[in-house]
Amino acid sequence: MKLLRRFLLSLAVAAALLWLLFAWGGVGPAELAQALRGLEARTYWTALAVHLAIHGVRSLRYQVLIPPGHRPGSLAMLACSSAHNLASYVLPAKTGEATLVVYLRSLTGLSAARGLASLLVSRLLDLAVLGAAMGAILLALRGRFPQAPWMAAVGAAALLGGLALTGLAAVPDRPARLLQALLRRLGLESHPFGARLSAKAGEGIAALRLAAAGPRLALAWLLTAAIWALVFQFYAVLARGTGLPGDMGYLEACLGSSLAVLFNLLPVNGFAGFGTQEAGWKIGFGLLGVPGDVALASGVAAHLVQLANVVLLGLLGHLWMGIARRPSAPPPAPPAGRGAAGG
């Protein structure tokens, strides 16, 4: 019942945000239908192919951050990753993030500490690479927008922030170590609850250190860079396919969709990010001179395509997990009499 209330509240928030956006942007059903009609089949299949590549590389990154002796198989990891992406996309306040740990534990027996370590380091790398990429894009395009002198300062700050987060990803166990030190300082390690909490922190420290081991972290960083290059390519394909200027370059599409990406990372967005993602898309492409109504209609159409892909791949992941969990049929009972005795 509690989950249902949160789900309905999320839907209500999304509906209210979309209503405000439509009222603010002056876009109606006709403009939205025009954006959807303009999406050619070739555009959709291209976007789906890029989306499949994103899922594959993201799954590989989760694998890389798990020690080889405990690493799930490729299909199991891909199924869990796709199902987790659906949950994190739909459930409110990013509560679906924890499902990756649950799915991996139930399907492959991976410990919660190792699954959580892979997820946490992945998210740190996502923020690091996204920040560095946005900084580099702003610096590269600053000459084309003399009316926006802030781009250089913001770009430099984002680039430095991304590099700092990369450094933090190399020592992700620091918060757990601080927790252990605090428990010792307060003398709580002698109490049962404090002892259990310290032991869990110790498991997390060991798992995080293994996940962030030098060569493994470097490979995960490269995979994260590939993921975000593909994410921006996905948005670039959909931007041009949903009514935005066809001569828009890759870097411009990256800049325009970057705010949609950032807004979608907020933990306060509604159902499937509806409302917040469109706001980011409208503002981002508005910086490039795209009219607000055109940008908003394009953002909603692109989001619908994205949601359709996430649902499709997520359901396939759940289906594979359901099949993989299905216990094998017991061997047939031996026939009675002489066959059973083996005589």
Structural description of this entry:
The chain has 14 helices and no strands. It is an all-alpha fold and about 350 residues long. It has one domain. Helix 4 (about 75-90) crosses helix 13. The radius of gyration is 24 Å and the shape is globular. The protein starts with a helix and ends with a helix. Residues about 325-330 and about 335-343 have low confidence and may be disordered.
Report helical residue fraction: over 70%
Beta content comes to: under 5%
Q: What oligomeric state do these chains adopt?
A: single chain
Structural class: mainly alpha
Count of helical segments? 14
Question: What order do the SSEs take from the amino end to the carboxyl end, as H and E?
Answer: HHHHHHHHHHHHHH
What is the makeup of the main sheet? none
* Record field, number of beta strands: 0
- Give me the Rg, rounded: 24 Å
Average pLDDT for all residues: 75
Q: Gap between N and C termini, in Å? A: 60 Å
- Tally of structural domains: 1
Are there runs of 5+ residues with pLDDT below 50, and where?
326-332, 335-343
Principal-axis shape: globular
Provide a quick synopsis of the model.
The protein has 343 residues and is mostly helical. The protein has helices at 2-25, 29-37, 41-64, 74-90, 99-108, 112-141, 150-170, 174-186, 192-211, 214-241, 250-264, 276-286, 292-325, 338-341. The longest helix has 34 residues, at 292-325.
